[in-house]
Structures are given as C-alpha cells and as structure tokens.
Design goal:
With 457 residues, the chain is mainly beta. It has three helices and 32 strands. Among the domains are: 122 residues, no CATH class; 109 residues, Sandwich (Jelly Rolls); 68 residues, Sandwich (Jelly Rolls). It starts with a strand and ends with a strand.
Length: 457
Amino acid sequence: MKQVLVPAAFNPAAKTVDFSNVAGFAPGRLLAVVNTTSRATIYDPVTAGLGLASISGSVLTLQFDTTAQAVTDHILAFYDDGVSQASDVNLTTIAGAAGVSAPALASGASGLLGWLRRIVDTLSGGLQLTSGGNPLSATNRLPVEIDASNAPLSVSGLVSVSNLPATQAVSAAALPLPSGAATSALQNSILTALGSPLQAGGTVNGNLYVAGSVVSSSNPVPVIDAYQAPVSASWTSATGVNTALSVSTGGMDTVILTVAPPAGLTAGAITFEAFDGTNWVAIKAPRSDSYLTDATFNLSASPGTHSWQLSVAGYPQARARLSSAIVGSGAVGLVCIVSSAPDVSLVTVGLDPNQQLPAGSNNIGSVSVANFPSTQSVSDAQSAPFAGTVAMTVGATYGAQRSIGVLCTVAGNVDVQFSDGSTLTLPVYVGWQTFPFAVTQIVAAGTTATASYYNLK
C-alpha cells in the first residue's frame, strides 16, 4: 500500500533525509519526497537531478540542493510498502506519524474519510495550497475543470451543474445588453437619420467639407503631390570621378535636378542614370530652361544654373554621377528633389537636336511638312543667294549684313545685338544654322555655345 511518511530527520545542509523510523525501509520503494514548506519536490526517481546521490542504510543523500531550506521545514515522503492494504489501522499509523491521535477524530467521523479529513486538518498548518502562485482564499480560488462526458457533478453548498454541454449558445434575447448598446434596430435608426438605410446600391446623403466649408468649385478638395526634402552636393576639382549624388525614387515619378557650374571650368561632365534593380542605366532628360535634352552634361561649356526633369517612374533609385573629372577652380552645386508628380514631357519632338548622324550614308526617311517647298536654297528672306561672308569675332562690332550664319560644335545660346542696340538670345545646336537677322555683334556675356559666326552678305 502507498503510504505517507514523515522521516525521522531532515538535514538540508548535508542534503540528507533519515528514514530510520521506518521498519524495514527499502529505498527502492520510495516514490517521492516533498518539502511542503517550500512547496518543492526534493526527490523523484524518474526526474533528472532529483534522484539519490548515495544511500547509507536508511539515510539517503539527495541530488537536489536543499542547502537553502530549513531543518524545521515539513517533509513528507510517499512510500509503497508492497504489503499492507488500506484500513483504519494503517490510517491510524499514518495519522500518528503526522501528529494525529485517535481520540482527535471529529465527532461521528470514522473510516477512511474520517482519518483523511483529520490528517489534512493537522497538516494544513504546514501544507499550503496555492493557485497562480498565491495562497487559496475567498478571492483566489482553485480552478476546477469539468468533463462534460462524465456523470453529473455536484459540489455541496456552492455549485450544482448537470449535463453541461461543451458549448453554450447565447441568444441576443437572453443576454442583457447595456443601455444604448449597438443592435440591429439602433443601427437602422442611425442609417435612417443619415438619409435612408444603406442597401445594395444605396447612397448616404451628406456633404464633404474642406477647411470647414462644403466642397465646391471655389473650395475644391486639394490633391497634394508628395516630395522628398532636397538633397544637395558641392563638387570641385578634388572630387573623384564616379562620385554620385543618389536619391531613392521608389513609388515616385520625377526627379528635378539642378546643376550650377561656375565659369572658368575647362573640363568635367555629369551623367544622369537610373537603377533598374541590377544595373545603372543612362537616361536622357529634358532641360527646364531650354528644349535641349541631355544624358551627359558638359560642365565647361555652359556655366550658370541649369535644371533637368528626370522621369524615374518604376526605378527605385536615380543619380547624377561625375563621369569626367572637373578641371578648373570653383565648385559645382547640385540639388535633387524627388516628387510623386507625374512626368510632363518638356520635349514633344522625336528628333534629338544633340544627336549627330553617324558617318557614311544615312537614310532617315522623309518628313512631310505642309506648304513647305520641296527644294530649299541657302538664302534669307530676300530669296537671293548670299554673295559673301564676313567672319565675326565674339565681342567685336561689325556692319550689319543680310543674315547671320552659325557653325556650332557645342550646343548652347548665342546672344546677338542689332543696329539699334537691342539684343536677342538664340538657342543653337550642333551643325550649320542660318538666321535672317542683320546683327552688328555677337555679345560675349550671353553666349554659351561653342561656334564660328559669319555675317552673310
């Protein structure tokens, strides 16, 4: 029979438990030893670290470290003697070991339940039941799980539950709701107050407000384009080639790039590129200050401030890269602004004015222009061939002739002056161009193109 024993002695410092008070004690029949004061199991033969370190007669040395426990702690052992059966005699023995004497039984108590109740009453001072780490009390009760498949369970004086199903249905009618709680009836009344209950295809009448006023043609809903804070850089002749000003463009559409090279640079170039997730690819961008487009910008040819609009929809990154070293004094300023505003093309013609035709025979097809003669002569508005030419030096003054010819090698602007002192800035591109203007001077201050100039007679 399994028995509850109180050992003869407990020495926590030596980690020993003495069962010399148990006749014929056999360590192999010991099932467990519990310190009821610290609520800790100090011996369990089936758990690692809770076995026996050594045995000397009826004195057991434990593996568990009991040095933090006290000699006065209450120790209980569970033991199977393998012989006796449960009876009042054996329960009397157990009760006596626990400090319960026969005359102490409650009036009318006898048998197994009587002895067990008395043993529990006696041990209650040293054995404490807890729930959630706290002693049981009127506010900290022991949870009880009820198996619905078993016979009806009745707890006298507290709860009586019979045939409780695992799942209980709760109806809206049976469940009390607080005053004003959301119900289908209340929801319908709210929707009715809005105009009519919402149904499939229904609408709710109401007004949309912006800045405290109803939306109208004079008070529209604002649509705001998102943009990132400007990112800037300053590059000089000390800046290494392939240095880049990069920006993240995921979810954005446009990058506005401004470059301001100083006058006096003799070399240097910036290339515009976008990242496709694997490679950096060159992209062509139109300028905001002219109809030119660039994939690479020559810093020495056009001092001043220039701006480009890069279309980057679908690209996660974009950058301006120093593709050729800067030569000369001064700093080149760069500014990038990333915007969600859609790209609006600044150039609507498919021909690139900066792209020269390759050497050799080139067939570019035909262009149909209404009311334009099929054969063009090199002449001015007077429709007469030119009889001569005068080479012009930038900044020098000449007598006005019929027209001006420009042989351009680097695109830019040409500032011309007329006989009355007025000036006009003309964009020129690589190649030969004729303008039907009688000019007296190529003004150096506004001229950025690299070209040869001729007064045509």
